[in-house]
Design brief:
The protein is of the alpha/beta class. The protein has one domain. The protein is about 45% helix and about 15% strand. It contains five helices and four strands; from the N terminus they run E-H-E-H-E-H-H-E-H. It has a four-stranded parallel β-sheet with strand order 2-1-3-4, with helices on both faces. Helix 1 links the parallel strand 1 and strand 2. The protein is globular, with a radius of gyration of 14 Å.
Length: about 130
């Protein structure tokens, strides 16, 4: 559970700025759909008791600095890495960097992965259930 003053588990959602994502590898998803889904997803997560923060990164130039700042701003129970970071082959080095930054700066946080916006809430529930099972 959260070690900060939040009432429930804390979740940091890490994703690439939708304007920078190559959606050709993600059929049925585009920048507009991704942006439109954020408020609804965040509301569902909050209704489940999560404290939610988002960290939007670029493709490398300031991604590390942005992520480190977000991690320093909270004690997160879970960090969810979006598909734009890890599912696009050309982002492999970015994904590796993100994982290592999370490992160093939030070593107690469980890391989880969604496949697109539609399973973000289920992914968070799964991460929470996994935490309870440990």
């Amino acid at each position: 559970m959260a070690t900060n003053d939040a009432p429930g588990p804390s979740l940091l959602l890490v994703g690439v700025d939708p304007g920078l994502v190559d959606f050709r590898t993600m059929p049925g998803l585009d920048a507009d759909r991704l942006r439109a889904s954020r408020a609804e997803i965040d509301a569902e997560l909050r209704a489940l008791g999560f404290t939610v923060r988002r960290c939007v990164i670029d493709l490398g130039e300031t991604a590390g600095t942005t992520l480190k700042a977000a991690l320093a701003d909270g004690d997160f129970d879970h960090v969810m890495i979006g598909a734009g970071v890890r599912a696009i082959p050309s982002n492999l080095l970015l994904f590796e960097r993100v994982i290592n930054i999370i490992h160093r700066h939030a070593p107690r946080a469980a890391i989880c992965f969604n496949s697109d916006p539609s399973d973000t809430v289920d992914t968070a529930k799964r991460a929470l259930a996994g935490e309870a099972a440990e």
